[in-house]
Write a structure and sequence with these properties.
- By secondary structure, the protein is α+β, with helices and mostly antiparallel strands.
- The protein has a single domain, classed as Beta Polymerase, domain 2 (2-Layer Sandwich).
- 54% of the residues lie in helices and 15% in strands.
- The protein is built from seven helices and six strands, in the order αβαβααββαββαα.
- The strands form two sheets. It has a four-stranded mixed sheet, with helices on both faces. It has a two-stranded antiparallel ribbon with strand order 5-6.
- A hairpin with a 2-residue loop joins β5 and β6.
- α2 packs antiparallel against α6 and α3 crosses α4.
- The radius of gyration is 15 Å and the shape is globular.
- The N and C termini lie far apart (39 Å).
Length: 157
């Protein structure tokens, strides 16, 4: 089993993506954790804008971070394959170009929240995506995420 994803790794992703001009949002449980959700995760999930230029920037940033991307994997990222799971690097990272339950990157970006320099999907988008995937582990976490949403919205006012 992989080690849990650490805050320092989120910082590495944020900083490398910023250096390369990558347009992205943290999504999934890693995003909820950055919002203050009390849990852990094994990987980070990033929602990426699906453009050729962004795909090239992602590949450059990931290589800088130490991910071993062969030509086929780099091509998948550059063309914006819906889901790319990276386990051949310094930590596990899921790249998502078409998350379930979210209409477009532009819509999600318009609603996103900045947390210590991290671009994070709004809690409503995190919940919508988890609900739309309909996996058992996501259905099990939805009641806790919805309860956290109420707390987060009150605290954010």
């Amino acid at each position: 089993m992989a080690a849990k994803f650490e805050y320092a790794q989120a910082e590495e992703v944020r900083d490398a993506f910023a250096r390369h001009g990558v347009r992205y949002l943290f999504i999934g449980k890693s995003a909820a954790i950055l919002l203050g959700y009390p849990d852990t995760t094994q990987d980070a999930d990033v929602y990426l804008e699906k453009t050729a230029a962004n795909g090239r920037a992602v590949v450059a940033a990931l290589r800088e971070l130490g991910f071993d991307l062969g030509p086929e994997r780099a091509a998948e990222i550059e063309r914006g394959k819906d889901f790319v799971q990276l386990k051949e690097g310094p930590f596990d990272l899921d790249l998502i170009f078409a998350p379930d339950g979210i209409e477009t990157f532009q819509h999600a970006f318009a609603r996103h929240v900045e947390v210590e320099g991290f671009p994070v999907c709004h809690i409503d988008d995190i919940i919508a995506s988890k609900a739309a995937t309909n996996r058992v582990k996501d259905r099990e976490s939805l009641p806790r995420l919805r309860a956290f949403r109420e707390y987060w919205l009150k605290r954010s006012r």
